[in-house]
Specification:
The protein contains five helices and two strands; from the N terminus they run αααααββ. The chain is mainly alpha-helical. Strands 1-2 form a two-stranded antiparallel sheet.
Length: 147
């Protein structure tokens, strides 16, 4: 507690002290926003849906958020008829796992004719960049090599 008699002993804090509050406000805002984004999945269980260029159908949300994400270990093979939106479900799952820091590396195995389409859609819809690795058969030997 301070009293009127203590007023003569009070001085202004000098800039540059270790615990001064004179840092740029924009830097503080940037750090707090980064921290908020880092823990946002704790408060928004469907963060990938709300932050990326997708509008999933109800069955996709149910598959990803009620069936796939709660299960451990995280190993899935989405296999369904063409046009069943496997790309959207896979992208939502991958994006959620990356945002929650539950995955660091992801491998997508697709038929050769669809590899570039998958790569393009993952980038356009979810901002995910993937490198393409192809299995090339050499004519002179019977062994396969990875590029």
């Amino acid at each position: 507690m301070l009293f009127r008699t203590d007023e003569v002993n009070l001085t202004l804090a000098e800039a540059g002290r270790p615990w001064a509050f004179d840092a740029p406000g924009a830097d503080f805002k940037l750090v707090t926003e980064a921290y908020r984004i880092n823990v946002a999945h704790l408060f928004d269980p469907m963060m990938a849906v709300h932050t990326f260029n997708v509008e999933p159908l109800p069955h996709q949300i149910t598959a990803v958020y009620e069936s796939m994400l709660p299960r451990q270990p995280l190993r899935f093979v989405p296999a369904d008829d063409p046009g069943a939106c496997k790309t959207i479900m896979a992208g939502l799952l991958i994006r959620e796992l990356l945002m929650r820091a539950d995955a660091r590396r992801v491998l997508i195995v697709a038929p050769c004719s669809l590899v570039e389409q998958w790569q393009d859609e993952m980038y356009e819809k979810f901002g995910l960049s993937f490198n393409i690795f192809a299995l090339v058969q050499q004519k002179t030997s019977k062994r396969s090599e990875f590029l």
